[in-house]
Design brief:
Keywords: Hydrolase. Belongs to the peptidase C59 family. Residues 4-128 form the Choloylglycine hydrolase/NAAA C-terminal domain. InterPro entries: CBAH/NAAA_C, Ntn_hydrolases_N, Peptidase_C59. The chain is an alpha+beta fold and 144 residues long. Helix content is 25%, strand content 19%. The chain has four helices and seven strands. It has helices at 3-13, 17-23, 87-93, 133-143; strands at 37-38, 45-46, 52-55, 61-66, 72-76, 107-111, 114-117. A hairpin with a 6-residue loop joins strand 1 (37-38) and strand 2 (45-46).
Length: 144
Amino acid sequence: MVGAEFVSYILSNFKDITEIKEAIPKLALLKTKYQPWEDAETGIPSPIPMHFTFFDPSGKGIVLEPVNNGAFKIYDSIGVMTNSPEYSWHLNNLRNYVQMRPHNVGENKLNDQLVIKQIESGSGLLGLHSALSFYSGNFSVKLH
């Protein structure tokens, strides 16, 4: 099956994550010829990376990452999904942001005479730029 049909197939044939996990080893994606895109880090044209995420009514989720020969790596979802590089890389890289918090700092008491209050909300994720949407998305999921 091709990537464009894969989501419809999964949503039409399985009722929950358990069923999807059981079926995935029997499924594969065909290699398709998409217009290559230029990798931002290397500048080398490469195929479009496709990752898929599914959630069932209980809130349980998985991320499916196509690998060699159309097979899939299966990850339990943390509620956020991204594409290249591999999902495992993103999970490991979260360790670089353990200081981030899904809430505002509020204020900082420097001494008895000076308390500095934040100007606006969003200070808990201050320093994350838009390219790190996987990480800010992870914290946003925790807030809901």
